[in-house]
Task: structure prediction
Amino acid sequence: MKKLLLAIIVIILAVPAYLFASGKIGLSSVSMILNVMTGSGIESPSLQTVKGRLQLPAGFSISLYASDVPNARFITMTQNRDLLITRPHMGEVLLIAADKSHSNRSGERTTLLANLNRPSGIVVHKGWLYIGESDAVGRVMFDESTGKIQGDYHRIITGLTDDGNHPYKNIGIGPDEKLYLAQGSTCNVCIETDTRRGAMSRFNLDGSDEQIVATGLRNTMDFAWAPWNGELFATDNGRDMLGDDYPPCEFNHIKQGQFYGWPYFNGNNRIDPDFNEAPAELASNPVAPAHEFKAHNAPLGMSFIDGASLPDEYNKMALVALHGSWNRSTPDGYEVVSLHWQDGKITRKDFLTGFEQDGDIIGRPVDVTQDSEGAIYISDDYAGAIYRVAYGEPQQVLQPVITGQTNTEQTAFELVQPEWLTEQNINALISQGEKLYETLGCLSCHQNAANNSKLNLMNLHQRLQYEDVIHKLTNPTAPMPTFPLGKSDKQALASFLMDRATRYEH
Ligand code: HEC
Result:
């Protein structure tokens, strides 16, 4: 046992040491790799860091939905807005309930399943919760309305191999009511003895009747069916040790019986230098990626997004989490990108960026899911965090403008008008707020507070959004008392304070 432990420690230290010594990576990457390999990660960022660093397209806002969830990997959302998370290192599935009174924060946590073997893929389907363990797929009855499991967890597919490099198993249920399973390769490049590694297969929902769907997939970490035509797409990680910029990671359009290249071909079907030629039956028809990501970007989780509550450009869109490179001389990836299907082409745009800045890494996105109200959730196994991204929720919309003059760096926020504030009601809200402000005695503490940054409400608009003010009134920090205020009272106070602050801005 001791020898095994020692061997593991030696390997853990040897890989980053080798990459560092050979100049493949920098020092910051060494500590990142150590954190990743030992599964320790870093502490979750503060809300301030999230707001200040992470960038989204106009109209989207971000909040730190849950922190302190080390090793948060694949996620799925129930109809009831319970978030289910696999944590392979802990061998568990965690349920994080929604906080019913604050859409942008999470509530209670429950361990739904424990003692699993490196759980990764997770699907809720028709009263069952399915889990991809490293050596099995199991399921348990699950009631989405209560968030509770019933009865025992049963392994319905067993005997999967989980040796080598890519032991995690990822699952999905297709429009054909079949259970799909992707099994990563054991190695960087090799010919597998277990032909189901580096391939995707399909089963009945009870685990019976296995069929191979596609082969030549090095490490497909997630896949999903386009809601507009039911076609299957999958992420795939390209091989290592051919330099910083080759080969690309892949986004594949999966079709029954097709071969996707690995280990003989990379990217757009270029023959791999370790082989130089492929067996005749495979050489004739490898399928090229539907879209290429940059080398080592490590696309992991993906999700097609329901664009009903989004602008037109987000129709026919998927989000893909790029976990980021670990063996590239300068880090790359570390973002969530959007893929857009238009005129028979897939184009890519940045969606959530800023996890990596000049080599400083604050997070690594793993998976993406969406709730019934349209909000998007992103897991981060490095910072142990879940982020929530929503469209048209003004409180967190953030366009940080770094003014960085002299020695004080300031982050200015663009104040966004909330939906409940209209031209029709603004004046009534302001005067109602002014009255409340006087009658409730807010002035007793907030007057003459020009030098105290928290008490000085005259520059409130430089640090808080309307919804933040409402939040402060709902959950005040002592010694500020909790006032018995209704929703419209809080909106009135927020309107008055913001109006006053912006009006007297000098
Ligand atoms: C007993 C003193 C007291 C009273 C009364 C009081 N506050 Fe406060 N308030 C504070 C203190 C102290 C803070 C700073 C708390 C902190 O450290 O975050 C604060 C913070 C705030 C903030 C957040 C400011 C920021 O930048 O974080 C808002 C908004 C606010 N108060 C509004 C009100 C309103 C509106 C009322 C009246 C309904 C009120 N306060 C009454 C003491 C008071």
